[in-house]
Amino acid sequence: MTSFIEVINKTYTRSAVLLVLMAHAGALLARTPQQQAWDILRIGVNQKSTGKRTQAVRALRLLPGNPEATRMAQTALQDRKPEVRAAAATALGLMGSKESSPELKKVLADKKPAVAMAAAHALQVLNDPAGYQVYYEVLTGERKSADGLVAQQMQALKDGKKMAELSLEEGLGFIPYADIGFSAVKAIRKDDTSPVRAAAARALINDQDPRVGQALVRAVSDKNWIVRASALLAIAKRGDPEFLNAIVPALSDKNGVARCTAAAAVIRLTTVAERKKRVEGSE
Q: What pLDDT does residue 31 have?
């Protein structure tokens, strides 16, 4: 039979627990929305679930110039899961975190090509030449400098199936297909390296290295139309009339997208050449 003292002890214990819970709930309610928001992110980046960590890290891209968010993303670059590392690299690029360039360059040596490519894209967004060097390698298969992909990664990038998976990797943000259309989406589903090489061609638009221009001209003759169209687009946007004659043959391309892109590129470069000629004539 329960004694009177035992009843009192149990009642006291329950009351104490209830008071603690009420105090904790009150503290939570007293926190501002901003404090609650930070709690969500801080807890999220440390979750056991890879998906939940990735979600939290990816959200950091919305906090440019925030020191804590930058530190959290930089820490995530060392995560054991490639999905999280890739999300961290992408976030740092979109945050405009130039101070993270040294850390992103280290990630270019990541064993997972998807992570290395995410870092390359981030560096490109930050206007760091190291990012362009990686895209040059992907397009040409040649090393441009010692800062590019390691041999193991280059071998993986030549694997069609892996490249197709890489093309569809969620959230990496380095595959620009919006202006090619649905036919490109169907092409991505094949085990083919072309989609990522096409993205590499476009990523080289702002790299003014003469070797890049020549590489893009060679890509205009690629066997895959996605690469040809992307190379033509890049040449057009680079606005160098020196390559005008080199892309004229593409006006006869059998693929409609590539052919139309070539037409627009020829018109654009012709306009640039004529403008340049007028300026030189007036001097």
A: 72
- Per-residue pLDDT tens over the stretch 201-220: 877 877 778 888 899 999 99
Cα–Cα distance between 215 and 129 in angstroms, integer? 17
* Residues 6+ away with beta carbon under 8 Å from 162: 113, 156
Q: What tokens does 105 get?
A: 């360059």
Are 58 and 45 within 8 A, CB to CB?
no
- 232's CB contacts (< 8 A; 6+ apart) are 220, 247, 250, 258, 261, 262, 265
